Every structure is written in C-alpha cells, then in structure tokens.
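testing teh design pipeline on a random one, pls ignore if ur not involved
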C-alpha cells in the first residue's frame, strides 16, 4: 500500500477520499437513528394547521420530548429527574426542542410545543424516525419526529418553566392536549 501511495500520490488520495465519503454516506443514516442534523430540513417537514382552526379532542395520544438544546448545551429529557432537567439555560438565546408524536399509531397532523400551559410554538413535523415506527410496531409511523425553535423571547422570566406538547389529529381538525413533559430552568 505504501509503495502505491508513493508511486501514485494524487490518484491514491482521490481514491481514499472517495471511499471515506462513500462510507460516511452509507454509515451516517445507520448511526443517526433517523435524526436529522441541526439545521437540516426535508421536503416532507410541515407546520401544523393554524391553532384557531382546531378543536380540542378528549383523550390523549403518544409523544415524547426527546431533547432540548441551546448553543453547545443540550439535555435529554429521558435523563430528567422528576421531569426536571439538571441544566440551566439562558433566556437570551433561542432553543431547539426535538421529539416525536403520533395520533394513535399513525402520523399526527402536526405538533405545537406548549410553554407554561399557555404559549404555543408551532413545530416542524415529519422528521424521519424509523426507531419510533419500529418500537410502536407501526410502519406508517415513520415520519413522526418534530423539531421546534423557541425564540429567545419565549421565556420572559428567569426560573422554572414547563414544556409540553399539543398533538394535532391526523385529520388536522383537532388536537390532544398533553400534560407538561418536562421542566427547564433559566438563569437571569
């Protein structure tokens, strides 16, 4: 191999680069569990219908707030103790919230992230989540991930705030109100 690199340095470098890029393209989807990289938008991502057009449905459906991130600080809700994250965030920067939601065992019509039970932030819905479809045993529940950016002015006061989810029905005419899923703390 060393002899080939000395004899054909440019061709070897091009071949090695091609192989690395090809392997990365093949391996990344397997390692990412269907999660899209930050800032990535797929054609199927969509916002929920206007909230004023929705009626409240009784009952609940399934969802998960998976993570929250701000700059280089991030936390997984699955690691929260009593629903409280052990990370303090700044109110001066936007935050990214990610998770998944279904209507029964199929794709929902969209998601709103609910802050303190009153502020609704529309989320982009349709992130590829083959892990959720596999766990639910529902192949039609693959594009059920969501991501929402919470603007820096979302949290007007320091201290603890709750984050929950409103799941829009698959038909897009109503929503299921879910309870608070987690609590985050903000510094002054």
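output:
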């Amino acid at each position: 191999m060393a002899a080939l690199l000395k004899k054909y340095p440019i061709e070897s470098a091009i071949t090695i680069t091609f192989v690395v890029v090809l392997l990365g393209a093949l391996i990344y989807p397997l390692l990412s569990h269907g999660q899209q990289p930050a800032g990535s938008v797929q054609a199927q991502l969509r916002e929920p219908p206007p909230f004023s057009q929705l009626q409240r449905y009784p009952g609940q459906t399934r969802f998960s707030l998976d993570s929250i991130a701000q700059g280089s600080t991030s936390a997984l809700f699955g690691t929260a103790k009593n629903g409280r994250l052990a990370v303090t965030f700044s109110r001066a920067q936007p935050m990214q919230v990610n998770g998944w939601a279904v209507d029964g065992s199929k794709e929902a019509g969209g998601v709103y992230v609910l802050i303190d039970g009153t502020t609704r932030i529309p989320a982009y819905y349709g992130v590829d989540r083959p892990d959720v479809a596999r766990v639910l045993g529902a192949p039609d529940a693959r594009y059920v991930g969501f991501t929402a950016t919470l603007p820096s002015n979302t949290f007007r006061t320091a201290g603890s705030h709750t984050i929950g989810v409103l799941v829009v029905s698959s038909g897009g005419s109503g929503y299921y109100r879910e309870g608070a899923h987690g609590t985050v703390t903000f510094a002054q």
